[in-house]
Design brief:
With 438 residues, the protein is α+β, with helices and mostly antiparallel strands. The protein is 34% helix and 19% strand.
């Protein structure tokens, strides 16, 4: 079932089931108390761990919300979404990315929750770190350290919401952090974080791809100056744990855009990291690794607006919605992986498909090839690129014009899945017939 989340809109479950009987079976699966979303996520995590072994891994973590504004009638077990009014829930995945190829390897784990009703007037800053929703950032880093023991190295990357003193102070052993600073923190040398870099020399300049900020925005390339140096960040005056050290030694890398386009805010990233930066190459590497955080935004897009569109599902029960979210993460990651592999690469097809299903795909592939060279599958047998080519063809790609994207891969996977099931059933019937021969 984890591999079947390819439908969109309010007809998600109906399309997943394909038939009325299949739809009912899918509902029974989501309703079964013996299957939890945590168990489903562990299954996903195990596959990702196998792909991450021996690699240098960037772990991106971030939070997205599923908001049922205008569709909240009869929702059960859900608290308020981010607007504080509409019913909804939150998903905070940790995603493994190969730092060298920049390919998404898969979901390691995810925290999926809904907000409980407020129980008292206790101010947020008076609550212990463990009792705040923001503890998810530390728990994500701890989970990455716990799981990725066989990786060559691990760097956990977070955006401004991850700028929490406790996350730096309690960093798990064996991992490094890169976090975009949100607060102008006090430093041990009686300076402020945001002003300390003004006297530092420019190390180098580099170009950075800026992600689209709105629908229809193609994004742009920004030229930034880089400065870097060590900082000793003071423990905050409020909301800290007495067990946290009074200072934490970090490195600040500042990337500041020069000559931004008219009517565009200049890019300014202040990146706090536990990695020592000694020269321009080191500063460039920190910026590059931080930029990989946007891969999790790709997954959210495949999960929501350009994918399953969970906000439009008619499912009401929170526990079922959480399972559907786990299925959606699996489908979104797989779609991203197929798009990544469309131009080739060393990854095996078994990163996204079970080895036992490869013979079925191998039998389907030749029928999709045409007469011209461009209509032949150019990739090595059983490679992920080979599988992506077959999936794209099934999704309607004609081997010409623009490369296949998310929607094409998602549609192609739905067809491939159905064909693989049919092929497998046919083979089983043939085997049974042979066995029954006198």
């Amino acid at each position: 079932m984890l591999e079947r989340a390819t439908a969109t809109g309010s007809l998600v479950i109906r399309k997943l089931g394909e038939t009325r009987a299949g739809e009912l079976a899918f509902h029974r699966f989501l309703a079964a108390p013996s299957v939890t979303h945590a168990e489903m996520l562990r299954t996903l995590g195990n596959r990702t761990l196998a792909a991450a072994t021996g690699r240098r891994i960037v772990v991106a973590q971030d939070t997205t919300e599923i908001n049922f504004s205008g569709r909240q009638a009869n929702r059960r077990g859900l608290g308020a979404a981010g607007d504080g009014v509409s019913a909804g829930f939150f998903i905070h995945p940790i995603v493994a990315i190969d730092s060298e190829t920049e390919a998404v390897l898969g979901v390691l784990d995810a925290h999926i929750w809904t907000r409980a009703e407020k129980t008292g007037p206790e101010p947020r800053r008076d609550r212990a770190f463990e009792d705040k929703e923001s503890i998810r950032w530390l728990r994500g880093a701890e989970r990455a350290a716990e799981l990725l023991t066989q990786a060559a190295s691990v760097v956990v990357v977070g955006d401004r919401e991850n700028d929490i003193y406790g996350c730096f102070a309690r960093r798990p052993a064996g991992i490094d952090l890169i976090v975009r600073a949100a607060q102008d923190r006090a430093l041990a040398e009686d300076a402020s974080l945001f002003s300390c870099s003004e006297a530092w020399p420019e190390l180098t300049r580099m170009q950075v791809k800026v992600a689209p900020r709105r629908v229809g925005d193609p994004g742009r390339i920004a030229t930034v100056t880089l400065r870097a140096g060590p900082v000793a960040v003071k423990r905050p005056r409020n909301g800290f744990d007495k067990a946290d050290p009074k200072t934490v030694s970090l490195t600040l890398v500042e990337a500041r855009e020069i000559d931004p386009p008219a009517n565009e805010d200049p890019l300014l990233w202040r990146l706090l990291t536990t990695i020592a930066v000694k020269d321009a190459d080191g500063a460039c590497e920190i910026v590059r690794l931080y930029r990989l955080r946007w891969r999790i935004e790709d997954i959210f897009r495949a999960l929501k607006s350009d994918g399953m569109r969970l906000e439009e599902t008619r499912m009401h029960e929170a526990t079922r919605l959480f399972k559907l979210a786990a299925i959606g993460l699996a489908a979104a990651c797989r779609t991203i992986q197929l798009v990544d592999a469309r131009d080739g690469g060393p990854r095996p097809a078994t990163d996204v498909i079970e080895p036992a299903l490869l013979p079925a795909v191998e039998a389907i592939g030749p029928g999709l090839e045409g007469k011209t060279r461009r209509q032949k599958n150019p990739h090595p047998l059983h490679s992920l690129a080979w599988l992506a080519w077959i999936t794209a063809r099934l999704g309607g790609w004609n081997c010409y014009y623009k490369p296949p994207g998310l929607k094409t891969m998602r549609a192609g996977w739905a067809r491939l899945e159905t064909m693989v099931v049919g092929f497998t059933v046919g083979v089983q019937i043939q085997i049974q017939s042979i066995v029954r021969l006198p």
